[in-house]
Design goal:
The chain is an alpha/beta fold. 36% of the residues lie in helices and 21% in strands. It has eight helices and twelve strands. Helix 1 (15-28) packs across helix 8 and helix 6 packs parallel to helix 7 (184-197). It binds adenosine-5'-diphosphate and magnesium ion (MG). Adenosine-5'-diphosphate binds next to helix 1 and strand 11.
Amino acid sequence: MSGLFITGTDTGVGKTVVSAGLALTLRAAGVDVGVMKPFATEGVRRGGRLVSMDALYLMAAAGSDDDPSLVTPLCLEEPLAPGVAAERAGVDVDLAAIGAAYRALAARHDFVIVEGVGGVAVPVKGRVMVADLRDLFPLPMWVVARPNLGTINHTALTVEYAQARGWDVTGIVLNGLDAHSAGVAEETNPGAIEELTRKPIVAVLPRLHGVSVGRMAIDGLGEAFTAALADGVLASLHIDA
Ligand SMILES: Nc1ncnc2c1ncn2[C@@H]1O[C@H](COP(=O)(O)OP(=O)(O)O)[C@@H](O)[C@H]1O
Ligand SMILES: [Mg+2]
């Protein structure tokens, strides 16, 4: 089984952009990529049903024509943690069904990219959090973090927390580096994070004008992500092809 679970230090940190960038990079290398956004919130109504912009963006990047019910088995409307949104909507979160959807996608593709929701301590059902889903998604994990001041703390906490719950964190992506405003924090953070967490920074992705999940704008993302990847990262992904 090969793939990655992409989490982040926060919501809005760039999990969708990084997941889509990786999907585009793998696709360009001839890999059949599947994508999944198992717990989506902020669903938008299209033709009487809720759809996830994250899922649409990921599917466009991967060239996926999988059934949306497999890609996003749970899509909720309110912009809240999924566990909270589900409770308020009176929806039972069927974790077994979400696991089955993942296995169906994994059987169909060489590599599956699963985008988490929020960060690792976000509730998905009652007291079950993202970090508790290791058995559902038996994948290595990447952590997406911001590049600027404050990121050492959030990244170290996230890595530690995920590892304590059994995840193998194999990479950290610093996303959204703005070359114009970057200073000494952005310069020293990668080294400090690698030293503290003992995990590799697998990419530092710049802020890309023209890339937007909300506007479904993806031009140039694949090339930029490929260029941002550290040497040897693709080879380390153990693609099943
Ligand atoms: N490297 C980047 N360059 C430009 N815009 C970005 C970049 N990363 C994220 N964004 C934008 O920031 C917002 C949040 O990113 P997103 O990937 O949706 O975060 P998350 O999935 O962690 O919530 C989106 O509107 C996205 O388009
Ligand atoms: Mg997202």
